[in-house]
Specification:
six-stranded parallel sheet; single chain; three-stranded antiparallel sheet
């Protein structure tokens, strides 16, 4: 811990439960327009040779993408989820004891809550009043997730939803009525790994700036201080990592290909056809990451831009962090580590 300055698309949540969910819309701007601009910029910049051609990884996280990823987390080969659950089950009381009573606990990218529920139950058992906020991009998925923790689930924990992006969440945290309270910002699932190492530090630093309380030396933390709980994958077993992101049933491939459908949605027309694309995953020893690409099977014209067959388009990198890299990340982000909880072989930690 750190301190610092599934259903199918046609299914609908139960109306009564959905209406009962406390969801706050914190969006600052229309997401589709922003994402369409990002897509055009990243493709044109990459194909002009200035940058690596990419499909923005935000395209992975529409409603369908969220549900496809949830299926992946139940796949035995995708070790990250089960490892993190085991860590939380073993250490939840100790982690909860380090979260200030009366805190706002905000989870960045909440998913279906099966991991965070372990920590929420520990907070409840320790009689620590907490306001939990699940941040996500899809109102429907927030409603579905919050059905897992209906009112009355806990005595001391109240559950809410935040509809918006990371940027929206930072703005929300700066509001006077929020800024004055102790907070714990939670990022599980090694989500930080999807950023470049420099961007990961910058990302954490901007959230750290929203935390109240002064930074203390390692191992000392004063009452009233806010904190961050960050899950990081340290596994460098190349075969194990490759199996996690290239599963035999092809769930990861479906997840990556869904970025094509989402791209068409945000552009407002059918610019791409999934049948024209393959998914390729590989371990990148140089960067210490597993990378997933979309690769066109044929030449494709996109708004006058020529994408050649076989030209790899990066979708997402999943960086792994050894202990030295973890220490560098905290230092670069201006964070101080005062607690660490690992699995037995220390290949994953929070």
């Amino acid at each position: 811990m750190l301190n610092g300055s599934s259903k199918q698309d046609g299914d609908k949540p139960d109306a009564a439960k959905a209406d009962d969910a406390d969801i706050i819309d914190i969006r600052q701007r229309e997401q589709n327009k922003s994402l369409a601009q990002m897509l055009r910029s990243s493709l044109r910049g990459g194909m002009s040779g200035n940058d690596e051609p990419t499909f923005p990884n935000l395209l992975l996280w529409d409603q369908q993408g969220l549900r496809l990823f949830e299926k992946i987390t139940y796949n035995e080969a995708y070790y990250l989820t089960n490892t993190e659950i085991a860590i939380l089950e073993r250490h939840c009381k100790e982690i909860a004891a380090n979260i200030e009573p009366g805190s706002i606990l905000i989870e960045l990218g909440s998913g279906n809550l099966r991991k965070i529920k372990i920590l929420l139950q520990a907070l409840d058992d320790l009689d620590r009043p907490t306001d939990y906020y699940a941040l996500d991009l899809s109102r429907t998925e927030l409603q579905r997730s919050l059905q897992q923790v209906p009112r009355g689930s806990f005595r001391n924990v109240r559950c809410h939803g935040l509809l918006g992006t990371y940027d929206d969440a930072r703005e929300w945290l700066s509001r006077a009525e929020i800024a004055s309270r102790a907070k714990c910002i939670v990022s599980l699932g090694s989500t930080i790994g999807s950023f470049s190492r420099a961007d990961a530090a910058a990302f954490l630093s901007t959230f750290a700036s929203s935390l109240s309380g002064q930074r203390q030396s390692r191992g000392s933390r004063q009452p009233g201080e806010s904190s961050m709980l960050i899950g990081l994958d340290a596994c460098t077993d190349q075969k194990k990592v490759f199996r996690a992101y290239n599963d035999a049933p092809g769930m990861n491939a479906q997840f990556i290909l869904n970025a094509i459908d989402h791209a068409n949605t945000v552009l407002g027309y059918r610019a791409f056809d999934k049948q024209d694309w393959d998914v390729q995953g590989e371990w990148d020893k140089l960067t210490g990451s597993h990378n997933q690409y979309l690769v066109p099977r044929r030449d494709i014209d996109f708004e006058g831009l020529s994408i050649m067959a076989g030209q790899r388009m990066l979708v997402v990198k999943s960086h792994k962090y050894n202990p030295k890299q973890q220490a560098q990340l905290w230092m670069s982000a201006g964070l101080v580590e005062y607690g660490r909880w690992n699995n037995e072989d220390k290949s994953y930690g929070a």
